[in-house]
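Message: A physicist's question: would you kindly supply an amino acid chain plus fold tokens?
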Amino acid sequence: MPRPQTLGELKKTNYQSRSVKDEMRANLIHRLQQGQPVFPGIIGFDDSVIPQIANAILSRHNFILLGLRGQAKSRILRSLISLLDEDVPFVAGCEINDDPLAPICRACTERVQECGDATLIDYLPRDQRYVEKLATPDVTIADIIGDLDPIKAARGGHALSSELTIHYGLLPRANRGVFAINELPDLAGKIQVGLFNIMQEGDVQIKGYPVRLPLDVMLVFTANPEDYTARGKIITPLKDRIGSEIRTHYPSTLEHGMAITAQEAWTERDGEEPGLGPVIPQFVREVVESIAFEARQEKKIDKRSGVSQRMPITALENVVSNAERRALMNHEKRAVARLTDIYAALPSLTGKFELEYEGELKGADTVAREIIRQATAKIFKKHFDGVPLHPIVQWFEMGGHLKYPDGAPTEELHSQFKKIQGLLDKTQTLGIKTNDEHSLLVAGAEFILEGLYAMKKISRSEELGYFAERPRPARPEPPSEEPGGVMPPRRRPLN
């Protein structure tokens, strides 16, 4: 059945107007009744953030998300459009998407009065009903609310005080949709005043002229908790008019973090042959994700700045890229990620955190390497706690050492690892079988060696590679002192 194209045809369908908040509430109720996820693709917030957002929508609240960087705040806001109808009718050509049954702008009101049921209508899809703005100090009231347009006034023969001369800003253009402002505290005070005036009274003043503009819009914001609570960053009347304040957080478990990273990281790449794309062993994924968890607890890193979830995402992408590069250089069919590839991903780690004074003294690279070692030790202990590895350590204590270049071919490493008693056999603890391809065995064996190094069972250096830490020879004890702490006097030689 063709959709109505005029106001008269729309009326015959018994179409009922409803506000955007009522529309989102109704669609959310339907989604909850059907047992469908509220925000598909948002992981780790099922028992914390998402129920609070659902309550805010059911309450028809404007709300703000408070959280550090990389906590999916913007992603959540952009997911709100999934709770909107597929499309809604509006007066054709209207700048602010007026409802044909209840227009609010002067131009559409006059058009409906003039054309009546013959007024043409159009349809606004849900993806065009979301408007987002990053708050910066240079944002003006004209950007958000609008300004008078002298050219429009001259061409139409209108007075400058006429509503017909307004060039609408982002907020009016979001009418009948969702308007999002990221980093709200960075917005100038006078802009915040304009926002709460719209939220409470539905009117604004443009160049001193009062304009009645009862917008139908859901207002949502994001902010950093430190900025939001700082004195003078946000005006109290605006804060008071935000219905719900919802705090986001980083993944609470390693499994949630790994699921987010697996969803967001670009790791599905084509190999030289179909079906031979890069392989990322589970323990490599665990170490990469554990790096973010360790970094968030590290005293040398500024916790107020946070450690974004983008850290493990970009790190895993770099790990895969380094494995690809090594496979291409060695003419190997399949790229398999190893622990050493994580050290090659340092550029994707050091830019993702801010250092405290102690960390700045050591340097970002040193701090990142320490965190990788801590993460490796944690995951190694998870897999090998209680597993006897004495034969491997003993091999090094008996004088064995192992050094190989970062880009060493798989077969070369496999032949070297075979010389270390029990090393390849212990990879079975990781689910790797002895008859698996050599690249997986090598990756598992390298994880064991790196784990022993992280647990301080063996040592590693750029010059020697892996080796046993030999005890240093004891220094000779100084001559004993006499009681009282006085050394015996030296006798002069006889003449």
